[in-house]
Amino acid sequence: MRNSQWSVKGNTKFLITLTHQLLEKLPNNVTTIQELRLIAPNSAIASVGRPRFEQLPFDLAVPDIDIDKLEAQWRSLGTLTLKDINPEFSDGMEIDSVKFWGNVRQLSNAIGETPYEQLADFCLKALTLPVSNAVVERVFSIMNAVKTRARNKMQLEILQCIIRIRVHLKEVLKSCCIDFQPSHDMLMRFTSQMYESTRNPKDLGTPRQTSNSTAEGEDLLEMITLFDNDNESHDCL
């Protein structure tokens, strides 16, 4: 009897210690990570059980975001169907969140306005949150391999482009530069204009300010479009 009591106490102490250690290892933003599920395609336009606007992961929003405009766009989005967003989408279909919000951003009305641009930008930026330390460590490993001592003066935008290409080739296409086949859209962009910059040369080493949401949104949409076209041309991989 005494041995069983000691066994129960020992097991209880072990479980308590294990719980404390697990809590120490878990990040403080677990709730924010869980909230990312609310902007999944099937949740965003669900007819039943659709998340409320205040439940969205606003911890990931930029400080100058227009909450009222976002709320209006979120409510309006609930009136659409998957077919309204993309004719290829259907109920029960597993839809990539990045592709979904990329399509939402490109929706336009009769006068050419994009009524869901701000909401789509917010969701796309929220989806860039790394969900594991391994992802971050992998990116830093690539960065250290690219930006060596010999290339220490590499501009930030060039570094970002090289990292983006390497990650996309390795993680998405499961390929390398040797057998990579550029899409038609990429070849059409390969002109002298790709070397032109509208920014001040002194500012090329610094990232764009978050207040310049239009430029950021255009860059984000361009990246999604290029990668989406690239994926379609590499379905055989």
From TrEMBL:
Superkingdom in the source lineage: Eukaryota
UniProt domain HAT C-terminal dimerisation: residue ranges: 116-165
Pfam families, per database record: Dimer_Tnp_hAT
SUPFAM superfamilies xrefs: Ribonuclease H-like (SSF53098)
InterPro entries recorded: HATC_C_dom, RNaseH-like_sf
Any one GO molecular-function label of the UniProt entry: protein dimerization activity
Protein name: HAT C-terminal dimerisation domain-containing protein
Biological source species: Gryllus longicercus
Lineage, uppermost ranks: Eukaryota, Metazoa, Ecdysozoa, Arthropoda, Hexapoda
